[in-house]
Amino acid sequence: MDNPKVSIIMPSLNVGPYIEECVDSVLKQTLKEIEVICVDAGSTDGTLEKLQAYEAKDPRVHLVISDRKSYGYQVNLGFDHAHGEYLGIVETDDFAEPDMFEKLYTAAKKDDLDVCKAGFYFYWSKPAAKDEPSPIASEVMASRVFCPLTDFKAPLEQVDFFNIKPSIWSAIYRRSFIEGQKIRLNETPGASFQDTAFNFKVYALAKRVRLLTDCVLHYRQDNEQSSINNPGKAYCLCDEYQAIDDFLDSHPELKGKLEGVKVRLKYDAYIWNVNRLDESIKLKFLERASEEFKHELEMGYADRSCFVTYKWKAFLLIIQDPAKFKEKWLDGIWAVDIEFDDDTKFMKLWKKINGGIYCIRDHGFVYTVKLGIDKLKDRRNRE
Amino acid sequence: MLQPKISIIIPCYNVENYIARCLDTCVGQTLFDIEIVCVDDGSKDRTGQILDWYAERDCRVRVIHKVNAGVSAARNTGIENSTGKWIMFVDSDDYLDTSACEKVWKESMTNTSDIIVHGGYIVPDYPKPESWKYWAVLTRKTVYPKFSFNVLEERGATPFLWLQAYRRELLERTGVRFCDSITFGEDLIFQFENLPFANGVSFIDDRLYYYRWYREGSLMKEATADLDARTSRHISNIGVIASFWKERGLLDRYGKEFLGWAVGFVIPDLEKLELKDVPSLARQLDAVLEENDLKRFSSGLHGAAGRHYRKMLKLKD
After folding, report:
1. CATH T-level fold of B6-218
2. Global pTM value
């Protein structure tokens, strides 16, 4: 085909049990003018042969063999081979709804979008097939086109937008945008969160982004080889954030606007990462996070307005004392055990005395003492 | 389908001079992911047209035109027709600070409270509003993880509805709506029926709301012109609340505090205002207390509450 509307990149490595369901779901799309670029990194479990069969059968399928086993490198390779107006990615253990690309492409064309993104389903095939919809936008958020860099007045909402699950595979990207801005995935080995930095770069540079309320893809949760389920890759996230730092350094016009957002995203990602790590390396990872956060704070990059209060306090605590953070947070009382009041002890006492004096004036001494006892009881009940 | 973060509900009735400012501040909120539900309660002036004008230009604004049925029914319609996770009420002649939704939403992420209360301003400054209004809109920063009667006595908890944001799940859980038949003090009833069932109430000290306490031809003003009738309505509202609390078994636990609150709410009015028929009002209150079995708690009252209670007994004879 000369001018496919969407080029779909499908990076694969040893996904024998799932590949057929996946490729079939893409080839049966209601949007017919597509090109499918399978980038295989040398599978040994029959995946490669199956893909070759598809290539022989359907002229829209192109098979590219990657010489490196890297998710990022594979997708980049796919980008290089693509001719479509828009680029999409489908991971080969997931599968798409039949009208996925039609929905995305129609919306993208209508509003002349750089990026059009939709929600997805969490999918379990065992013990029984189960879909759990995970929409990414309310009707309100889907009602307009955003420029993520400039369109948000509330810093927290901007963070929220950047923080939408980095499902780079439930979206399509304009090829001229990706190529013009030279956005590439990080080419670290294997599949290790390369979506993080890519997602950030796309949002930082895109001028027209629109979210859809629909769910369009089934995201498989029970593939044990999936990178999400692999705690071995403890420090891959750090590489991704290093890549984001490099990206911001090379785009000084974005740096001032997005440093705060970046620090907040990094905090969220690191906390998520600590959660799934093995007990033995948790503290080590936290110590590394502590150093990085300290650097951010000292350079003035960390922006309090991008944090919710308790997260900001957690952020500061990690910097001060990672061991204490681990202990407090593991006990599970972290979110509750926070002093909201910033007053010093003296000010608190002063306020109490003042309140007592007013109370005696208004209600009498006996009442005040009884009220005091009530409040003490109340506090004990709370504890 | 994901819900918008906040629904702002605005009941509108003949407010063509004020509604534009109100909607401007709603549409101009720093938080984008909100929806604004305006209920046009059968206005006879151009209010409806102005609302439609806004709805055409911003898809987040939704207008519901209905025949006039009072502010309670309008708010209920708004609740039924909104989808947001949080519900904020704004009166059509007041207006919001542009960061109001953002701050409420931010607070909602720090804890699991079902109700968030913020502070406000009273406008205009002249003529001078009553001093209690100044105090009632000044909140302090605190969190009540569980209900205790102190919540209701916290500044901002009562009586102003528009200082509060409710989690939709709470309203669905309690099933409490505004009482259509009551046109005065319906917000107080709403608060007393919802607060005890909230999983925590947060107060933040930001002042995010501008309350226009005085305007020509305001509904409040007409309703408050007749002091006797107003006080009598206060008392009957206390009766409504008390019977609700009794039904849910709350009076057994908070009977003493409730009795103290009720007499403290009415008796100072009886003493200070120039009412025509004080004894009959005192008798009305007495009957309400009797009806709900509240008098058994009178021995536990101390200080001002006890004084008020004894005063009531004296006044009714």
Report:
1. Spore Coat Polysaccharide Biosynthesis Protein SpsA; Chain A (3.90.550)
2. 0.86
